[in-house]
Amino acid sequence: MGSMLQIGAAGAKAYNEMYLLRPEHAKAYRDGDIHIHDFDFYSLTTTCCQTDIIKLFKDGFSTGHGYLREPQSIQSYAALAAIALQSNQNDQHGGQSIPNFDYGMALGVGKTYKKAFNRRLRDAVEDYLDVEDAEFTVSAVISEAEKATGEVAKLQSSAAYIAAVADGLIKAFKVDQATAEKLVKRAAERAYKKTDRDTQQAMEGFVHNLNTMHSRAGAQTPFSSINYGTDTTPEGRMVIKNILLALDAGMGHGETCIFPIHIFKVKEGVNYNEGDPNYDLFRLSCQVSAKRLFPNYTFLDAPFNLQYYVPGRPETEVATMGCRTRVMGNAYDPTREISFSRGNLSFTSINLPRIAIESKGDEKLFYEKLQAMLELVAQQLLDRFEIQASKHIYNYPFLMGQGVWLDSDRLTNQDDLREVLKHGTLSIGFIGLAETLTSLYGEHHGQSEAIQQKGLEILGFMRKFCDNKSQELKMNFSLLGTPAEGLSGRFIRMDQKRYGKLPGITDREYYTNSFHIPVWYDISVYDKIRLEAPYHALCNAGHISYVELDGDTARNVEAFESVVRCMHDCGIGYGSINHPVDRDPVCGYVGIIGDVCPRCGRREGEEIPFEKAQELRRLYPEMPAFQGIE
Q1: 157: closest CA among 135, 122, 188?
Q2: For 66, left (φ over 0), alpha (ψ -120 to 50), or beta?
Q3: Cα separation of 85 and 32, whole Å?
Q4: Rounded distance, CA 218 to CA 236, Å?
Q5: Between vectors from CA 152 to CA 151 and to CA 158, what angle results, nearest 5°?
Q6: CA 293/CA 560 separation, integer angstroms
Q7: DSSP assignment string, 487-530
Q8: Degrees (nearest 5) of the Cα angle 437, 440, 444?
Q9: Could you tell me which of 604, 559, 566, 567 has the C-alpha nearest to residue 583?
Q10: What single-letter DSSP state applies at residue 33?
Q11: CA 44 from centroid of its chain's CA atoms
Q12: DSSP strands (E only) in 358-475
């Protein structure tokens, strides 16, 4: 199947270049001046979307193969969340994300607890009072309590609700006050435990589903992300705790999960400082990320994120696609500057080092060439938008047909998508700022504060172009620090053929990712964060800073947290901390492994004696069970 898709992609690219691109765009793409991302989908789809699962799940939805009722338990919420991501992946070529995972799943926790409390109260009454079949009477007591207080059973029910239920038991079963309160307390405790267990199972199932289900003709797992961390309700906190524990547990044999990419939203007053309601969950996230590489961190206090934040309105919290894509500002409709139900339409990246090389150190010429390239890319993005805008609901039966995209629920089958797509972004990306600066000035921004200012001026110039274009057309043009792990190699291979191996510019196998300090340059973690942070404010279409830590961070969570705090305090928008993660496939140990595994004591290639394997299994029940080691 993968081979068939590769053949189809090659054919689509050839057709698109020949028939859909203007000659100047085709030449720029072919020669390596620009890179049109997901070019095989040029005439078909948009890139990505942040799916509001609360809206989607309300009254149920259809995948095209049957209608799914509104979920009524945390297990169903988690299962349908995975189905929603998979279904939307089939309408888009990029990543899928849930911006309000904790808020959305919390509704499922609430429904699960409500049912569990009803059942546990019935069980307590029947067991303690030796009553047969008290279900009808207990349900009536709970119904009356709900009417009297206007509330339902919650993880932390109000004193008024608890008193109303106890009063109902006194009247219905002729028990005293102490007995009634004891029955309610016992039911609440048991319902809490069951809900917590169900939530844990649901979160593990969600993670397992997203690492095993397929889309795109069965050839790939949905590229999925989930954002969470700011729901401070007891139900939301239970979701956050258990999704982190599911990530920490790994897959069936302890493997680190690839998807979804977990993104923890950090906010002062919510989870960042001791005393904040979710501070314990922030600490847990650091503990898990120090072991599993995820979650990554989005910092809502960064000024360019904080400007949108409205307390009590989760849609104003910046959410991120795991790859780094960010959508918030809205020149088309400034009253809808939200993350929910929006995404990127398409993006094209500029070979920035080539412009610098051809400018031969002439700064004025560089900016003239850059201006011309920005104009060319903007026109190409608009051409692609025209193709997308001509589509109809039936072209995207889930994304548009189920109202996932903002305002798509207002469309008729005859309407084109032009106006609703304007909520999305057209992004101009770039690669190789470090090599660009080296070509122009002889140093990169990690080596000199003066060159750092030159780097900020270049990206400031590009951002101003995007802002001006947005205001001119009332569309969302934005600047992207391109996720270019593959593109970095394509551009430099072409440039090496054209210019040879220029020291510090084309003498490696890749250009440096976006605005990053080169990975080969010796710099402290904290200096790297400080120097890269200002670029996050300029790259409003998306950005990320990575830092690399040595050693076993799982054994030094405080050091790990200090790096996260440095990111927050320096104004990073989205950050990720990488560190070595080894795994012994026999005993399941995860951490730093030298020559000898710290858990089982074996060297690579050695077997574990039967008796040792039995002893390890008693100590570590999660140890994989493979034939041949016992």
Answers
A1: 188
A2: left
A3: 33
A4: 33
A5: 65
A6: 11
A7: HHHHHHHHHHHHH---TTTTSSSSPPPTTPPPTTS---HHHHHH
A8: 25
A9: 604
A10: S
A11: 24
A12: 425-431
User: What's the pTM value of the predicted model, to 2 decimals?
Assistant: 0.92
User: SS3 for 362-388, per residue?
Assistant: CHHHHHHHHHHHHHHHHHHHHHHHHHH
Distance of CA 314 to the CA centre of its chain: 15
Residue 40 in contact with residue 166, Cβ under 8 Å? Answer: no
The residue among 341, 398, 407 whose CA lies nearest residue 67 is 398
Q: Return the beta strands (E) in 533-617 as ranges.
A: 545-548, 574-578, 582-583, 590-591
Q: Do residues 109 and 238 touch, judged by C-beta distance below 8 A?
A: yes
Residue 199 near residue 193 (C-beta atoms within 8 A): no
Which tokens hold the place of 527? 């200096």
Rounded Cα–Cα distance for residues 155 and 167 (Å)? 20
pLDDT bucket at 1, cuts 50 / 70 / 90:
low
How much of the chain is in helix, strand and coil states, percent to nearest 5?
Answer: 50, 10, 40
pLDDT in tens, 556-597: 899 999 999 999 999 999 999 987 666 777 777 776 677 788
What would the pLDDT profile of 125-148 be if each residue is shown by its tens digit?
A: 999 999 989 999 999 999 999 999
CA dihedral of residues 328, 329, 331, 332 (deg, nearest 10): 20
Whole-number Å distance between alpha carbons of 277 and 283 = 12
Question: Which amino acid, 256?
Answer: T
Residue 93 backbone class (left: φ over 0; alpha: ψ -120 to 50; beta: rest) = alpha
**For the residues of 557-581, what is the DSSP string, one character each?**
HHHHHHHHHHHHHHT-SEEEEE---
**Matching residue, tokens 């961070």:** 553
Cβ atoms within 10 Å of 254's Cβ, excluding its own:
18
Please state, in angstroms and as integers, the Cα–Cα distance from residue 71 to each residue in 103, 106, 116, following that order.
Answer: 15, 12, 16
* pLDDT for residue 150 is more than 80: yes
The tokens for 602 are 């074996």
Average pLDDT over residues 219-226: 81
